[in-house]
Amino acid sequence: MSDIPEREARVFMRAGKRQPLTLVRGEGVRVWDEAGRSYLDFTAGFAVDSLGHCPPVVVATLVKQAATLLQVSNAFYSVPQVELAELLVEHSCLDRVYFVNSGAEANETAFKLARKWGKLHKDGAFEIIAAENSFHGRTMAAVSATGTAHYRDPFTPLMPGFPFVPYNDVDAIRAATNENTVAVLLEPVQGEGGVNIPAPDYLRKVRQWCDEHNLLLILDEVQTGMGRVGALFGYQRAGVEPDIMTLAKGLGSGVPIGAVLAKEHASVFEPGDHGNTFGGNPLMTAVGRDVLRYIIDHDIPANAERQGVRLMERLRGIEDRFPQVRAVRGQGLLCAIEFHEPIADAVNHHCIANGLLVNVVKPNALRFIPPLIITEEDVDEAMVLLERSLADAMAAPAPS
Ligand code: PLP
After folding, report:
1. Residue 16: what pLDDT?
2. N or C: which end of the chain has fewer CB within 10 A?
3. pLDDT (0 to 100) of residue 398
4. Which residues pair with 216 in a beta bridge?
5. Does 253 share its domain with 363?
6. How far apart are CA 399 and CA 396, in angstroms?
């Protein structure tokens, strides 16, 4: 290892944990460290690098747009911004788009939209029912809506108005609804919560409840959107239409961009209600536009589904051979393996040693969120490396 970790320790705020790797280059499904060692990347920048590392389409658009127009304020019209918004509207069930810079900011914006809608249409109702084990980001309102205590507890008092209910339990949503309820906020599949896939009719029943009680359904598709779960959006797999949807991660395939989409009836912002300096700048929206075109033209969601099925078959084989495995689950290329014991760090340690990057999503679970352009060979190689790493971890647990 180089001196980067030591240098960082002197100047950087320690807000998160690092793996013992400094990555310097990426191409396709692989990244390289400073020593020139390559790794098969089944983390994809946490489900961001949907088209792989340094995809030619992103690089070409970045170079062209950077030399044309980087940024103008949102006081002016912008061609790439409109083009990306048009594409998103054309390919989704939503009618209007607002651009931001991250998933958390997209959710913040969605909450403001829902609260304003509550003032206009529901006597000031403001509560947004959220799910236990959910993850919606780290800004103040997003963390308040996140149903995982360790993300919230250090930052109390939090923003009020986010009651939590168990995920995949429509009766709990019914019971939590009161005259203050304005919306229900859910991930179609919980990603950070450990890849939790609800019953096939869960979102349909939630949609029905929302319709009956004049509630907005907000789907956080920051992780599930843009092809990750084998359809362009998770709501399509679930057979429901949200009133509001948030996107980020795969929308830019490596560049920071997020978006809030809303149906016409939920699109209640007026000039002056919201704004940001960088959101929807020409550089990021030009990339988002070309990423989305690429995803559609090459039917990337179909590849995510195909490779996801293969990945799950391979994971089930590992489950059969290793009694340490409690369960495997996945939808498209959002998959996880869960162990009986908290051995995910140990297995991950050996994965890195064997040249595979995976994500420790829980002390007892690993998540696989590779680029959506992976091939059968990549899946097979990753599963050989995973099986080897699991065997290595059983033989020699990682140093603590
Ligand atoms: N929502 C979901 C479902 C996520 O998975 C994430 C990040 O993992 C976020 C929101 C937050 O996105 P960001 O880190 O871009 O703020």
Report:
1. 87
2. C
3. 62
4. 183
5. no
6. 9
Q: Which atom of ligand 1 is nearest to the CA of 224?
A: 3
pLDDT at res. 144 = 98
Nearest by Cα to 130 from 163, 92, 88: 163
Same domain? 151 vs 176: yes
**Tokens 């959101």 appear where?**
279
Identify which of 136, 185, 276, 334 to mutate to test ligand 1's pocket (most ligand atoms within 8 A of the CB): 136
Q: Which of the listed residues 249, 284, 361, 369 should we mutate to test ligand 1's pocket, taking the one with most ligand atoms within 8 A of CB?
A: 249
User: Which residues have C-beta within 8 Å of that of residue 317, sequence separation ≥ 6?
Assistant: 383
173: left (phi over 0), alpha (psi -120 to 50) or beta: alpha
* 25-45 pLDDT tens trace: 999 999 999 999 999 999 999
User: What does each C-alpha distance from 21 to 366, 371, 377, 396 come to in angstroms?
Assistant: 18, 19, 25, 21
Is the CB of residue 288 below 6 angstroms from any atom belonging to ligand 1?
A: no
Which residue range is the domain that position 339 belongs to? 4-55+299-395
- Cα–Cα distance for residue pair 265/253, rounded to 1 Å: 30
Q: Is the dihedral of CA 145, 96, 77, 84 positive or negative?
A: positive
pTM of the model: 0.97
Q: What total of structural domains would you count in the chain?
A: 2
- Residue 287 CB partners (closer than 8 Å, separation 6+): 58, 61, 62, 65, 252, 253, 255, 257
Residues 43 and 60 placed together within one structural domain of the fold: no
Q: Where are the alpha helices (DSSP H) in 91-219?
A: 103-121, 140-144, 149-152, 170-176, 202-212
Positions marked active-site? 135, 220, 249
Instruction: Please report whether residue 82 resides in a domain.
Output: yes
Task: Write out residues in the chain with pLDDT < 50, as ranges.
Answer: none
In 3D, which of 103, 87, 101 has the Cα closest to residue 292?
Answer: 87
Q: Report pLDDT for 237.
A: 97
The residue whose C-alpha atom lies closest to atom 10 belonging to ligand 1 is 136
Domain assignment of residue 125, yes or no: yes
For 9, the token pair is: 């320790």
